[in-house]
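ARCHIVE CARD
CATEGORY: sequence design from structure
SOURCE FIELD: tokenized fold
FIELD CONTENT:
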């Protein structure tokens, strides 16, 4: 992949997860109040501090990708957040799945672009 294209994708992914990670603490993007099963799901994530951990992972991954420091490692760790976001939206909130799919696609592209860094892990 062209290095300038990869840099653009890496920065877009980094900004995407950094903004959503910071939003979990600062609440600058207005969100609808969850209802029903979604409310119960988020209550469990908040009470178990899982949402805080996800926010920290997103912030660290975003900074790592933007500054290209440990990007390969954080793109791999971020994959668990991406898959869970898609699964959450596919099962509980399908009308809002587009950003989660965008996150997953950008993450897969980043992983593919870092494939040389993973060769030793796969041998």
């Amino acid at each position: 992949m062209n290095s300038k294209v990869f840099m653009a994708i890496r920065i877009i992914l980094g900004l995407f997860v950094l903004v959503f990670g910071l939003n979990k603490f600062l609440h600058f993007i207005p969100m609808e109040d969850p209802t029903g099963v979604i409310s119960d799901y988020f209550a469990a994530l908040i009470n178990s501090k899982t949402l805080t951990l996800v926010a920290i992972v997103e912030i660290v991954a975003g900074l790592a990708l933007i500054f290209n420091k440990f990007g390969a490692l954080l793109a791999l760790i971020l994959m668990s957040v991406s898959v869970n976001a898609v699964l959450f939206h596919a099962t509980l909130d399908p009308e809002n799945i587009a950003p989660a799919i965008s996150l997953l696609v950008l993450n897969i592209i980043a992983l593919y672009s870092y494939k040389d860094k993973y060769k030793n892990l796969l041998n």
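CARD ANNOTATION: The mean pLDDT is 95. The chain has one domain: 3-117.
SHELF: design records, drawer C
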